[in-house]
Amino acid sequence: MAVKRSRSATRMLSVFEEIARTQPVGVSALARELEADKSAVQRDLMTLADAGWIRPAPGLAGQWELSPHILTLARPPHSNESLRLRAGPILERLRTETGETAYLAVPDSDHFVVMAAAESHHLLRMVPAIGIVIPMEGSATARAVLPYLPDEEQQRLLGTVPDAETQREFVRTRARGFTVNDEEIQVGAVAMASAVLGPRGVPLGTLVLTGPAERLTPERREAMGAMLREGARQLAAEIS
């Protein structure tokens, strides 16, 4: 039997996420953006405030912002935190070996989130902020992870059944050990990703190298991909 969902809880989570996205923000703007009843949003705000998750924005009457309480969840003692900590030295090594920015991304529902990064020292560099969301569509990270997911999960994330060419690309990715996004999301930017596989081959995240296309040239990519692939395998071995 299907379990009934709590619509009020869903709305409250939407209020919380919208505050995080647009803070400081008032009840009228929240209700308008969420297309929700203003009095219901006001009740959600009071509930979140009483629980310590939000607070009035200093000096801005009627405006709300997240409280520092959110930081208590930023470093939870679970596998993602272990992954982040163990990835640090590997990211540093990749940056040193390649000269480019290296980062760790982990799956979060239908997208990915940057968990840790070692920035390139070049004046011209790509700098993904910690916590930034990486979309599923077109990203090197998604391409690195999709080949290792069950069929039904591939279909859900792609929005369709993978066609024959996509399946062949999955095979090539598993054999090669890394993927490349060649200026397909941002002109002038190249990203390379390798999946970090946990027990039973489940992808826990990806290691990514990114930089300007003028430095991540096709001639360099095989060597850099090999470094990335080895880094992902080392990280997987350390957390197994």
Automatic annotation (TrEMBL):
Keywords: DNA-binding, Transcription, Transcription regulation. Gene3D superfamilies: 3.30.450.40, Winged helix-like DNA-binding domain superfamily/Winged helix DNA-binding domain (1.10.10.10). It comes from the Bacteria. The keyword DNA-binding applies. Residues 69-240 form the IclR-ED domain. PANTHER family: HELIX-TURN-HELIX TRANSCRIPTIONAL REGULATOR, ICLR FAMILY, HTH-TYPE TRANSCRIPTIONAL REPRESSOR ALLR. This is IclR family transcriptional regulator.
